[in-house]
């Protein structure tokens, strides 16, 4: 059954359609390029992929005959044996499942998480190839249908109820754009304001802060399948910018899996520091940067991918100069539904992303 055309008229999406055409041109051009040379392979950052693990990185040795390493070595072997059984039986388990097989032995969940990441990195395969899944915390809504691995057919909706991000999907439908929302509260507010219905066809995703692996995999899958524009809506603060960079460029801890997790074509839709001045957001709705914020902002400005994003750098420098930050909720000082009825529609219609 087709989705009912309840969104804006076709001309509303002109800017989005032009943006998508430019993205497709880049994808086509890169598909015809020869593979990167050795200098790129050794690089920590590749603009078309994101953060990558370099071959000449520091390694850590775990020895079976070392008193300091014997427990870690034993735990690695135990988890490897469990992974072997999962692969052999073609079944899957979550990291939580593995932890609870012997919680006293492992001590805490972080031990299991770190060992699984180490095994994935050591074998140079995605975690999913180990038949180990993460428990999803993200949510998705909008014009999306998919088939889960067990054959269950799921149809997301544009109403106030979201669907948990699946651990694996085999079939997806199309949409005009994908909006990644940093926080669950903002995501729920947009659903309550019928944003998805009024902007249909679209998809919204939230990782509820720092995204889990399943949410990042889903965003990557949507991009690879449809090549639709992907935008982020985050707080105008260093923490929000870092979350956006994780979706776009990845994280150091998962750099060995960057090719299957990052979407370098992601654009920053809002909240931009320049929007604070442009919209005359009241000063009492702003928050001073803490010392921790300033350290984080300085760190972001030194990261290699910011070299490729001069407009991002300008926005971040504006934040550093003002020494102020703002949450998305600051837009409610203009009106209670300003975000869903004015701010986002205008950004999408007139190309207000960077």
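Sequence proposed for the structure above (354 residues):
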């Amino acid at each position: 059954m087709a989705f009912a055309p309840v969104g804006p008229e076709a001309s509303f999406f002109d800017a989005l359609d032009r943006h998508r055409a430019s993205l497709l041109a880049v994808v086509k051009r890169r598909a015809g390029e020869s593979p990167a040379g050795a200098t790129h392979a050794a690089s920590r950052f590749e603009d078309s992929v994101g953060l990558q693990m370099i071959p000449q990185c520091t390694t850590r040795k775990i020895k079976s005959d070392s008193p300091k390493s014997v427990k870690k070595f034993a735990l690695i072997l135990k988890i490897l044996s469990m992974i072997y059984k999962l692969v052999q039986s073609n079944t899957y388990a979550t990291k939580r499942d593995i932890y609870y097989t012997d919680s006293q032995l492992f001590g805490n969940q972080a031990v299991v998480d770190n060992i699984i990441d180490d095994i994935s990195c050591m074998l140079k395969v995605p975690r999913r190839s180990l038949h180990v899944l993460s428990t999803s915390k993200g949510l998705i809504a909008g014009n999306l249908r998919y088939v889960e691995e067990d054959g269950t057919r799921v149809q997301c909706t544009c109403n106030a109820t979201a669907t948990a991000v699946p651990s694996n999907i085999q079939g997806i439908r199309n949409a005009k754009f994908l909006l990644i929302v940093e926080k669950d509260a903002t995501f729920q507010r947009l659903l309550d304001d019928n944003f998805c219905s009024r902007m249909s066809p679209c998809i919204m995703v939230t990782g509820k802060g720092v995204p889990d692996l399943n949410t990042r995999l889903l965003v990557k899958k949507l991009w690879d399948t449809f090549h639709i524009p992907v935008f982020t809506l985050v707080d105008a603060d260093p923490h929000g910018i870092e979350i956006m960079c994780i979706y776009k460029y990845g994280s150091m801890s998962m750099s060995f899996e960057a090719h299957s997790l990052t979407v370098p074509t992601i654009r920053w839709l809002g909240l931009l520091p320049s929007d604070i001045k442009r919209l005359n957001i009241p000063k009492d709705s702003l928050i001073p940067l803490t010392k921790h914020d300033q350290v984080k902002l300085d760190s972001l400005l030194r990261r290699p991918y910011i070299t490729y994003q001069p407009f991002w750098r300008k926005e971040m420098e504006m934040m550093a100069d003002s020494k102020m930050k703002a949450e998305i909720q600051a837009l409610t000082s203009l009106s209670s539904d300003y975000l869903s009825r004015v701010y986002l529609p205008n950004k999408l219609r007139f190309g207000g992303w960077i």
